[in-house]
Amino acid sequence: MAGRDHEGRVLPFARSATDPRTGNPPTGQVVRSARLAAVPVAYAGRRIAGFGKKVAGRPPAEVDRDIQTRTAEHLFQVLGELKGCVAKLGQLLGLLELGLAPALAEPYRQALARLHDSAPAMLPATVHTELARHLGADWRALFLEFDDRAAAAASVGQVHRAVWFDGTPVAVKVMYPGARRAVLADLQALRRATPLFAALLPGADTRPVIEALCEEIRGELDYAREAANQRAFAAAYADDPEVVLSRVIAQRGDVLVTEWLDGTPLSRVILRGAPDELDRLGVLILRFLFSAPARAQHVYGDPHPGNFLRMPDGRLGVVDFGACTPWPAAFLDVAGDVGAAVIADSPADLEAAMRRHGFVAPGRTIDITTVSARLRPVRKALTSPTYSLSADWLRKQVRVATDLRLSNVLRQLTMPPDHTPILRSFLGGLAVLCQLRTEVPLRDECTRWYPETAAAAGL
Question: What is the spatial distance between Cα 458 and Cα 391, in angstroms, rounded to a whole number?
Fold first, then answer.
């Protein structure tokens, strides 16, 4: 797997970290940690070298862009090779990339695309070994056809096209050997990084939130759980005129077989779709994410362009249910209480509601006037017939949210850990809708699916 910079030069870090015999990602904690540690070290080296180039007369903008491009290549290549939790971090970086100025974001956008499109794949012999381990030595008898080429790569597994023995076209998801061990090692590293998050968010009790996130990611290693999630969603959306979900055909160990959905990936539609088509798909995605708790009693936790399809009949196809979690029904009381204060634009009521529901640590002061002002875009989105979302809008919000100055009021807030799946779904869905540049009927969807909560909030 070779890598090159924007001028076509071969990069020294481009050698694959995968096992050359199997194509599997490394699973040893020492190896994985070393790969990740090499990224900031290499970045520091490039900055030192770049200083010399500037002194020698090379244009500073050209030097800086070269550093950004090579660092993006390095970072996303490492994420792609290691997969597991760090590949999920690559998805998060895709969200943050939307918050960068276009000139700065381009190297990261290109490298992230390569992460999605060119992640190292298991070699056929390894795939066959895993299928025999989980489906039995006669696994081939279950399929009329099986394509050894990977059709898609996921963070902990890869997907193959096949035809089930009854003629049904299927997707066969096979977990990477050692992926479970690698992810558990990554979770330990994430737990050790908790003090860093505490420094970034001094008003938050980050430990239980990090622990909740770790448990959520750990759950994605359980294909039996994923199959149960998918069955619940498929039953809830059976014969839906707007959304299509595939049936679970079989699940054994680390292999999951589902119906194949033959649609166009949303990532491709975003690049070529007409504005009215992007708007229509945006409304369908918003409606699916809002309706899932009411219809399937689950939060759809992994909304990103790779998990949505435009079906030939115009419906929205949805795949990958590993990150879904049961809906915490008590959240509706929180939404109604806080939402009422936001709609009323009452800082005093907002502070009382946020303290009541654990968004401010006991005894901590908060600049509630500034918090209330920061939430006015939410008020506008909830009270307007439609609300425009775009990359420019998201860029502004990300800059505000990630400002590390102590004066950033968002650093004074915390979050109840049981809201972690909802936040993950919200951020992912928001990023997708901004990429679609869509107008969202947020008020109508709130009142349609949660009429009592909407009434309590004053909508």
Answer: 29
